[in-house]
Amino acid sequence: MPPSRRVSEKAKEVEEIRNLIHQYRVLGMASLQKVRATQLQELRRKLKDTALLRVTKNTVMRWAIDQCGDKPGLKEFMEHLSGTSIFLFTNLNPFRLVLLLQKSRVKTVARAGDVAAQDVKVPAGNTGLPPGRIISQLNAAGLATRIEAGSVWITRETMVARKGQVIDETLASVLSKLGIKPVETGLTMKLAYDDGTLITEEQMQLDLEETRRSLEEAHVHAFNLSLSAAYPLPENIDFLLQRTHLEAYRLAINASVLNRETAADLVRKAHVEMLSLSRRIAMTKEEAAPVDPVQKG
Fold it and tell me: Which CATH number fits domain 120-184: 3.40.50.1820, 3.40.30.10, 3.90.105.20, 3.20.20.70?
């Protein structure tokens, strides 16, 4: 391709990227490491109505960003441009986009140097593999074995790798033979620019269960505080009215205020007090009665 044509193609690509940056609120960058072409095609299909995925060179992205001076904070994005990346253009909340990418990740067999996506346990039972070299390989991976009915059996469930641990060649081979897939592949968001705000990979890590528990706990504390402060809100007004009614009712009973709501309880209270007083009077009379001398002798 003639140099002039290459320059023209680059200029056209830079213009396209610049237009996309202005068209969409969010610019994301994800790692393409270990992502298969078929998986990327499937992801494009799933996100076609949500995000535009574009693979472009970092130099082209830098030139495009240089032409977007009206985007505050965008030039800081350039400081993170390294390695092979794919860029995502979307109007979706970046945290929502991260969740979609996480759901699209697939489990696959491990290769030497891969990192375990979770704790890897090999269950006890029949491997379905005939005796041979596999026994020494299983033993090298820390698995206890026995031979039964012409097959190799694993005698007990064993943890062979912790989450985040690098898998070596021996363990990768064993897990592959056993059909265990400890590695997840897919796009991992490294950075997102959201209308002036730069969000790092660490900030985009979400633990939904922990977030849900934190929100529920915060809601309970806020609700209790609003009740203690008697601060009326649509969420607590029923409880405040019930509590106020109960406090007013107890005050009326203690002060013997007679009305339609307290009449029945005041009568019952007076009846109970009358019975208690009657018993005390009877006991006082018994204690004050003279003792018969004959009975005393």
Answer: 3.90.105.20
